[in-house]
């Protein structure tokens, strides 16, 4: 039992809730999928409930929904200005999903879907492909200007182009890795620090309990608070970078 | 609700939009999110360089030169990414007409 209590990686185990095979493909419903579904239902449910009877002077719940929406719309507006209007729903969806999935992961015994690179990587690759598709669709061959920054002397331009291509290719990795690594690392740190408490008590008895109370618990509280902040910030960073990358697709070369 | 009020709200919003200058600060967000971005951008560029070099080597049987060259290019890209993000943040933080010290 102690083994389970102190193993920091146990919480990331994907388990099957029920098996599902369609056409030889294993698409079993896992705990990760369950918490993603819960997150999506929570978002839809909250907004349906909060905006069920919209008023000109908003009630508290309506106000919360409007602040949430206004925050995301504000990001898009600051980065993309007027051109970003069609992308507000997309960025809103990405932000809300990551934010709620991260926050659900902070609950005891909950599973953090965003701590798996399969989930974050899929979102990052989707964003990356979307940028390429929109860039080519809106600008055609001019989209390649994204690799050629203006105002660079010709004799180092070829080198800058290589660097820009590397930089462009590293975007999906950077986007997916940051979210996944932060959630994974944060939860491992939290578990390890919290695991000190039973270990100290079992190992040193009363003295250990006193040490755990004075030394470890404040640390655990601090790390929990930090994790809540990180859960929000990661969703914010993902949303803002989606906007920044979309801006490149809409205005290639205009850094 | 009357359309009159909606019209007034739309008008007031348009006036606010006209007044509000695009705040460059919001592009980069709080400092901590900037830090997350820099760290991940730096590492991701090196990893991409390594993967690309490994792939080129596997295709062209040029081991280890593709890996060496692409890893170095990835490292340069990583540093350049961080420098560029920092420069953008500095420019946004300094007043528009103030000269950088």
Explain what this protein looks like in three dimensions.
The complex is a heterodimer of chains A (255) and B (101). Chain A is mainly α and 255 residues long. Chain A is built from six helices and four strands. Chain A is 72% helix and 4% strand. The longest helix of chain A has 97 residues, at 154-250. By secondary structure, chain B is mainly α. In chain B, 79% of the residues lie in helices and 0% in strands. Chains A and B meet through helix 3 and helix 6 of A and helix 3 and helix 4 of B.
Key descriptive features of the protein:
heterodimer; A: 255 residues; two-stranded antiparallel sheet; 72% helix; B: 101 residues; mainly alpha; 4 helices; 0% strand
Compile the SSE list and pairings.
The complex is a heterodimer of chains A (255) and B (101).
Chain A: H1 2-6, E1 16-18, E2 21-22, E3 25-26, E4 29-30, H2 31-50, H3 60-80, H4 88-105, H5 117-139, H6 154-250
Antiparallel strand pairs in A: 1-4, 2-3
Chain B: H1 3-19, H2 25-28, H3 31-60, H4 65-93
Helix/strand structural class of chain B: mainly alpha
Number of H- or I-type helical stretches of chain B = 4
| Portion in beta strands of chain B | under 5%
Residue share in helix of chain B = over 70%
Helix and strand pattern of chain B: HHHH
What oligomeric assembly is this protein in?
heterodimer
Order of helices and strands of chain A: HEEEEHHHHH
For the largest beta sheet of chain A, what order do the strands appear in spatially?
Answer: 1-4
Could you describe the largest sheet of chain A, including whether it forms a barrel? Answer: 2 strands, antiparallel
Outline of the structure:
The complex is a heterodimer of chains A (255) and B (101). Chain A has helices spanning 2-6, 31-50, 60-80, 88-105, 117-139, 154-250, and strands at 16-18, 21-22, 25-26, 29-30. Chain A is mainly alpha-helical.
